[in-house]
Design a protein that fits this description.
- It is built from 2 helices and 6 strands.
- The chain has one domain (about 10-165).
- Strand 4 (about 145) and strand 5 (about 150-155) form a beta hairpin.
- The protein has helices at about 10-60, 80-90; strands at about 70, 115, 130, 145, 150-155, 160-165.
- It has a 4-stranded antiparallel beta sheet with strand order 1-2-3-6, covered by helices on one side. Strands 4-5 form a two-stranded antiparallel sheet.
- With about 170 residues, the protein is α+β, with helices and mostly antiparallel strands.
- The model has no long low-confidence stretch (mean pLDDT about 85).
């Protein structure tokens, strides 16, 4: 009589292994999701610095920033990002998600919004701001830019960067 066990795995052993692999895969995919959104936030910060550099070059050449009013990377209404690109003579980055909808300053829309105007609040084109949002952080309670009249411009929960009034 042969008493050796048959070679192979039982159905229960295979099910346990498949369940463990499924749990591990779920954990890995969940952690990758937050890593992706953090990477998009890092890209947003780099994009904003790129846009600011292009604006500073324009300012050096012209003595003012483009006074286009509102412009948005998601082309909200008629506020076309291409208008700013044409003024600066370069292609500008857009938000990695670039949601349709409102400007960044009106909520948590993931888009870039630019504003400068030829009026006294913005030093007749010598000041501007860019608003944007992040997926993993919210702006602090003091997040704004001084305008030429000394008031602070804050946006509804968006990050604000830009050139403060030039003296």
């Amino acid at each position: 009589m042969n008493t050796t066990k048959p070679k192979g795995f039982t159905l229960i052993e295979l099910l346990v292994v498949v369940a463990i692999i499924g749990i591990l895969a779920t954990v890995v995919l969940a952690s990758l999701g937050s890593a992706r959104s953090k990477a998009r936030d890092a890209r947003r910060e780099a994009d904003i610095r790129t846009i600011q550099t292009a604006l500073e070059i324009y300012f050096i050449d012209n003595g003012v920033y483009p006074t286009t009013g509102w412009l948005n990377s998601n082309n909200h209404n008629s506020e076309l990002w291409s208008t700013l690109e044409t003024a600066l003579g370069t292609t500008l980055p857009v938000d990695p998600v670039n949601e349709t909808g409102n400007r960044a300053v009106t909520g948590s829309t993931l888009t870039y919004s630019y504003y400068s105007a030829n009026n006294t609040l913005y030093c007749n084109g010598r000041a501007y701001f860019i608003a944007f949002n992040k997926e993993n952080s919210t702006p602090g309670s003091i997040n704004g830019l001084k305008r030429c009249d000394g008031s602070t411009y804050t946006a509804g929960g968006a990050f604000i960067v830009g050139a403060s009034p030039v003296e």
